[in-house]
Amino acid sequence: MKTNIIIPADVGQSEQQEFIQNYQAITKKTDNLFLFAGDQKIEHLNKDFIAEGMPPEINNPQHLFEIASKGTIGAFATQLGLISRYGRAYPNINYIAKLNSKTNIIPTELQDPKSELLWSVEDAVDLKVNAKLPIRGIGFTVYLGSKYEADMLMQAAQAVHRAHQFGLVAVLWMYPRGKNVKNEKDENIIAGAAGVAACLGADFAKINVPEGQDSKTRAQKLQQAVAAAGNTKIICSGGKKRDKSAFLQELQEQLTIAGTSGCATGRNIFQKPLEQAVSMTNDIANIVY
């Protein structure tokens, strides 16, 4: 195993060991992170949980926690409120507490996205301490290009800084999105988003995989984002559910060709019965770690 823990300068001397423990827990003492993403109950409402061919049990939020508890993951990211509902029953999960979220009811064509803080870093720390839960870090989404980006950038910057002061790892979801963003999957704008995550002090940045019509592969298009992020680690969104072997092959290419540091996968895991979902986490972990 290799590890190259970069302790941000805003992590105080007394909190450095806490930061190292949290970082090593979610990366399994590597430089990579397998984030099981479970924030869709707000972000996508029930679109991802009720559809033809999906097992009915996945609509219950407990399905997410069962997977996170029994599977092989680095951390489970979901809203702080959901952690408070199920955390005592699942105290063995490494949690990333998502501090902001928005629904998808209003489409981007009608209104630029805005995702405000729902909880503070202090709220996450209080839950961590009082319920004795392994909350290892915080998560926050920024929609670059939205007319509300200034508010989200400020809140994200403060959340990252405050999280570090408590020895928590900070993960930013960086999505170019808004009426002025012509192509949110363009490799240049995604690389720009990765660079912004570094400027905000993030330890990990979750981005979408670039797309396009030229001869470069999707993994090759990611190289610019990885370089732009510097020592902020890049993890890629898993996107919609698709063929398992194709998904795992692309993940391998992201790590080996682009130099990414893991993945943030949700639907390709939880839209399966529990046994299959747990098996999928094992397959992903074998690649990431």
Task: Characterise the protein shown here.
The model has no long low-confidence stretch (mean pLDDT 96). The protein has a single domain (13-288), classed as Alpha-Beta Barrel (TIM Barrel), CATH 3.20.20.70. It has an 8-stranded parallel β-barrel, surrounded by 8 helices. With 289 residues, the chain is an alpha/beta fold. It is globular and about 50 Å long. It is built from 11 helices and 8 strands.
Task: Give me the secondary-structure topology.
Blueprint: H1 16-27, E1 33-37, H2 40-43, H3 62-70, E2 75-79, H4 80-86, E3 95-98, H5 121-130, E4 135-144, H6 149-165, E5 169-176, H7 187-199, E6 204-207, H8 218-229, E7 233-237, H9 244-258, E8 262-265, H10 267-270, H11 274-288
Parallel strand pairs: 1-2, 1-8, 2-3, 3-4, 4-5, 5-6, 6-7, 7-8
Helix pairs in contact: 3-11, 7-8, 8-9, 9-11
Summarize the structure.
This protein is an alpha/beta fold and 289 residues long. The chain contains eleven helices and eight strands. β4, α6 and β5 form a beta-alpha-beta unit.
